[in-house]
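User: I'm preparing a small set of examples for a lab meeting where we compare how different chains pack in three dimensions. I only have the primary sequence for this one, and I'd like the structure in token form so I can line it up with the others. Please keep the answer compact; I'll paste it straight into my notes.
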Amino acid sequence: MSLPSSKYLVTKDVAALFGVKPNTILEWEKDGKFPRATIIGKPKRWDAKVVDDHCKALRGQSIRLSA
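Assistant: Understood. Below is the structure token output for the 67-residue chain.
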């Protein structure tokens, strides 16, 4: 997965990385299934490194589950 070059990602960018709608990311965050956003100004934003780390953790879980 290739993250955009910005340090922070808005909800629609995070949703595109996961192939879901923006509301899904917000629901995952609310349910504790996704890291909390860093709010800078009006839109929620996620630190790109936090999103990348979360993706790596999910990949690691899927590898352990399939082994």
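A couple of notes for your slides: The first strand starts at residue 8 and ends at 10. The chain is about 55% helix and 15% strand.

User: Perfect, thanks.
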